[in-house]
Design brief:
Elements (H helix, E strand, L loop, with lengths): L1 H4 L2 H12 L2 E2 H8 L3 H13 L3 E7 L6 E7 L8 H10 L1
Helix pairs in contact: 2-4
Length: 89
């Protein structure tokens, strides 16, 4: 989880998704990064359980869009937890 949160872009993505659900093009514009870079960060955030997606279907092109939203979480970090994390690496 810390790896996913240890980047300014990831934090901007989470902050944006905390306000509203977005699809990729919309989110890339809002955060100010390219779509390929956004996908990289979204993958890390999804793997950490911080973000989830939903595919929605529409009548007009583009017919499908993948929307992302932040999952509610709480992070408690202590010195003992940091030592545990470092020992695992």
């Amino acid at each position: 989880m810390l790896n996913a949160l240890g980047n300014e872009h990831s934090l901007k993505i989470l902050a944006t998704l905390a306000e509203c659900e977005c699809y990729v093009s919309e989110l890339a514009k809002e955060v100010g990064i390219s779509r390929p870079l956004l996908y990289l960060h979204l993958k890390k955030l999804e793997n950490a359980g911080l973000v989830e997606n939903e595919i929605r279907h529409f009548e007009e092109p583009p017919y499908t869009k993948k929307y992302y939203k932040a999952k509610n979480f709480e992070l408690v970090l202590s010195l003992s937890r940091i030592k545990e994390i470092v020992k695992k690496e």
